[in-house]
Write a structure and sequence with these properties.
By secondary structure, the chain is an alpha/beta fold. It has 24 helices and 15 strands. The strands form three sheets. The protein has an eleven-stranded mixed beta sheet with strand order 1-3-2-8-10-9-14-15-13-11-12, sandwiched between helices. The N terminus is likely disordered.
């Protein structure tokens, strides 16, 4: 999930540096003092208590020792298998099913690749190699004995986001207090994968509390992007995206409440889908936002192809799912919808009119629209209602309890640098927020930022109900607009920016309203890579109106060569349609970028 707001970081860290020449020394000093006062609201020593630092170090060492033990083994056994490198999960499954590949051989290759990925990109929280190898050997024994695979995913290695329960493993969400507290049973989605013959073999790194789109925490450190290690792999499923992008896992399981699957996919050139809430079970998924039901998260897959997304979704959307979690509507996988080639009417928008996307993100959408036209679809501009209001609504709802949940969870923890600005911003007195908003609007002319600041306050029950009513209205208006225009699916940017430099996410949460949109509306949405940033894209630059734009311009600098994705969204519970269109785009564009 996303860091609530980088605004206070922008205000306190960047405003004083540029104000003197713009508005005079006295004003600069006044704003700087206001920002310092805001940061002083929560004493730093209270935010960074070291009670759990030793526990975090012990956990980190346990991970590193486990990786080192297996590294020495794979060095002796030459586990890397070049013949497996070009194969995606679906292709691996086909060979595992017919016996041309053995489960242990495949797993050893991915163990070796995941160790390399960990050493380069810090994407694991805990390997599960020993148990996984036992499982793989058992699968091979069954196949040799019976001549039949155990299930439709027989022998497929699977990585799992840290917040998704795997029996016998911690689910830390980047908190030391949750280390060395193994979970008693698998999440339902993991259980279904095991029953199908898949082999979970690694837990992957996340952002602290899952409240940032940069995966970093004091227990396991920062995940780096395989395309550029000076940039983030996204969050909160960043460890998953880095591992899959680096070839360390053929497929993984993550979660998404504001873009936590789709942003990492966009940043790393991988594929993901956020299903409609309640299409898949969340039993065994860990969140610190228990009781926050206004905008709910959803689990989903992250892979290297659309076929692999469908492979996992097909397995999950089975009668067995509804046995294990009877709270879900029984909506089995619709193969007909996925395989259909009926021409569609596709609505396109390139901006949310709140945070303008980089040139590469606009080009990606326009080129994809041209591809869809060439495939026989009707592509039209879609005047999507309320999209410029989504970011404000999202942060208003997520901060409705005044940040009490996060403060309680982090009370004895070392706070990651990606989290400090949002913690300070939400906890600051409303009077200070109003004062800062006045300066931003009337002194600096930064109206966009000024409008957001007062939203970061605790709401009454009445105010929350009004926000929920607004969310419901927005959702109804958006779907009605689609229906009235005869639009089957929507095409838009996956994010306003390519992968950000490390440390920038806390300043630029306003750039990810494009993914937040479909969480607020609860529509299924997927992201797939279609191009990379060109030198011409980078030279195009952007208009600078405030600190967010200035920071975005810095993020764009040096982005040539980074992957760029687009989003496809549809009406509720039409995941198969989303994947169908994604598959058509993938087949036509044949994105060949590689980390």
């Amino acid at each position: 999930m996303e860091n609530i707001l980088g605004l206070f970081s922008s205000a306190s860290d960047h405003v004083p540096q540029v104000l003197q020449g713009a508005v005079g020394l006295k004003t600069a000093i006044a704003v700087a003092c206001s920002a310092c006062l805001i940061h002083a609201v929560i004493p730093k020593n209270l935010l960074t208590k070291r009670t759990w630092r030793g526990v975090a170090e012990k956990k980190r060492n346990a991970r590193d020792e486990s990786v080192a033990d297996f590294r020495s083994q794979i060095a002796k056994e030459a586990c890397l298998d070049s013949t497996l490198l070009p194969l995606n999960a679906s292709q691996l499954v086909a060979k595992l099913q017919d016996g041309s590949l053995r489960a242990e051989r495949v797993l050893r290759h991915f163990v070796a690749m995941s160790i390399y990925s960990q050493e380069q990109f810090n994407c694991l929280t805990m390997p599960m190699f020993e148990e996984a190898l036992k499982t793989a050997r058992h699968l091979d024994h069954v196949f040799e004995t019976t001549g039949r695979p155990v299930g439709p995913l027989h022998g497929l290695p699977i990585s799992v986001k840290d917040s998704v329960s795997v029996k016998g493993q911690d689910s830390t969400v980047g908190l030391a207090q949750r280390c060395f507290k193994p979970i008693g049973q698998d999440a339902i989605l993991v259980q279904l994968l095991r029953e199908a013959g898949a082999v979970p073999f690694a837990h992957t790194n996340v952002s602290q509390t899952q409240m940032s789109f940069e995966s970093s925490n004091p227990v396991f450190g920062t995940v780096l992007n395989p395309w550029d290690t000076l940039r983030t792999a996204g969050g909160s499923s960043g460890g998953e995206s880095a591992l899959v992008a680096a070839g360390g896992s053929p497929a993984g399981v993550g979660t998404d409440i504001g873009g936590s699957l789709r942003i990492p996919a966009h940043f790393t050139g991988t594929y993901s889908i956020k299903p409609t809430v309640d299409r898949l079970s969340v039993i065994g998924m860990h969140t610190l936002l228990k009781g926050q039901e206004s905008i709910r998260g959803a689990p989903g897959p992250l892979t290297t192809s659309v076929a692999d997304l469908a492979l996992l979704m097909r397995q999950w959307c089975s009668p067995r799912l509804y046995e294990l979690d009877p709270s879900l509507p029984p909506l089995p996988w619709n193969e007909e919808m996925y395989r259909s080639r009926k021409p569609l009417r596709i609505g396109v928008f390139t901006t949310d009119n709140f945070f303008e996307p980089s040139a590469a993100c606009v080009r990606a959408v326009n080129e994809t629209a041209d591809v869809l036209r060439s495939l026989g679809h009707e592509v039209v501009r879609f005047e999507a209602p309320h999209v410029s209001e989504i970011y404000a609504l999202y942060i208003s709802i997520i901060t409705a309890e005044g940040g009490r949940t996060m403060r309680a969870a982090l009370r004895h923890e070392e706070i990651d640098s990606t989290m400090r600005p949002s913690m300070t911003a939400v906890a600051a007195p409303l009077l200070l927020k109003k004062a800062l908003a006045w300066v931003l609007r009337n002194v600096l002319g930064w109206r966009r930022m000024a409008n957001v600041v007062p939203l970061l306050n605790e709401k009454s029950v009445n105010q929350l109900w009004q926000l929920q009513a607004q969310r419901t209205e927005f959702r109804s208006d958006f779907m009605n607009a689609m229906k009235q225009a005869g639009i089957d699916v929507v095409l838009c940017p996956s994010s306003a920016l390519p992968a950000l430099p490390i440390g920038f996410a806390k300043d630029l949460t306003s750039s990810i309203g494009y993914t937040m949109l479909f969480n607020v509306l609860n529509l299924p949405a997927g992201s797939l890579p279609v191009t990379t940033v060109t030198a011409d894209d980078e030279r195009t630059g952007r208009a600078v109106h405030d600190a967010w734009d200035r920071r975005a311009a810095l993020a764009d600098a040096g982005s040539t060569g980074l992957p760029i994705g687009v989003q496809i969204a549809a009406l509720p519970f039409q995941e198969e349609l989303v994947l169908r269109v994604m598959g058509e785009i993938e087949g036509a564009i044949k994105f060949s970028g590689s980390a």
